[in-house]
Amino acid sequence: MLEEFDLPKEIVDREVKKMTMISPTNKEVQIGQTLKDHEYIGMVRREVLDDFLRKRASENGAQLINGLFLGMQLPQKKGESYVLTYNDYNSTEGASRNGEKKTLEVDVVIGADGANSRVAKDIGAGDYAYAIAFQERMRIPDDKMEYYKDRAEMYVGEDVSPDFYAWVFPKCDHVAVGTGTVIDKKGIQKYQQGIRDRAAPRIAGGEVLRVEAHPIPEHPRPWRVKDRAALIGDAAGYVTKCSGEGIYFAAKSGRMCAERIVTNSEKGTRMIDEYDLKEYIREWDAKYGATYLVLDLLQKVFYTTDAQRESFVELCEEEYVQTVTFDSYLYKTVQGNNPIGDLKLGWKTLTSLWKNSNKKPDEMRTLV
Questions:
Q1: Which residues 6+ apart lie within 8 Å of 128 measured at CB?
Q2: Residue limits of the Digeranylgeranylglycerophospholipid reductase catalytic domain (predicted)?
Q3: Which of 107, 138, 253, 260 has the fewest CB neighbours in a 10 Å radius?
């Protein structure tokens, strides 16, 4: 993403080159040795990334409005404008807390307004299943922070999430400790306490700086285009299973949609229509549809029971798995073009699942 979107490395808090996978019994598998010298997973804070992108957009001619989008009036006949209603917080006339209600007429609407998208609601895009992600940003003692300087941790287990994973991710001067779930949203506090307990030896003495919670889409919406309105990013449901990552896909879908508008409108000289925007959807599905299907399958296979999660962590010891996993994550397309490697991995997966499903679980290990 840094290269593709010309982002400065200064916005990256940590360059993660080590990933520790931790099973339900606290078996630890270290992955990352297959990374090349220049490869890493960039850890950023959204407030830093978003601020940079917003300022760059302004420098390139975008008109920024600090406001709250309230809804829109759809065109009643061909060629009519969309009328957006919003509270403008930059207005000098209205109260700064409540803003001043204003309207804006536009030809095209791109809904980039997140999982609870009001644009999606207004165009009748349909609902989708979603997860709740909850995390605490925590400042931990320096000696413990040193351990996380280039390392991220992923924990799996019924105690930290019934269908996802929990994490400790390093940021600039603190760590983000969190978890997520689709099937038991009301139990999110219980699972957050679970990751706090599991990671306790490594985050002991931590001070909570900030608490965050966000909905995360589990699959694309039934409809992502209507007339001259289109959805991108979380509003469209572009978040991958297994990893729960959506930042790159939000940026990529925004660019693909914008490029299609520029091309099909002949740089703004003709009005586009629904067919033009659906070209962006077709291009997106052709490029990333397989990725979403594969990751959905993997989540169903490995994130259901603790026995399956033990197998998942075991398989992460395989160098081939690490190569495929990191390459798929870093470059956003499903890797694995080695038929022999895929066959061996398939056999090891089946034997590991059978073994762990038919034996007494190992004793709980203690993290050092």
A1: 217, 218, 219, 220, 221, 222, 237
A2: 132-187
A3: 107
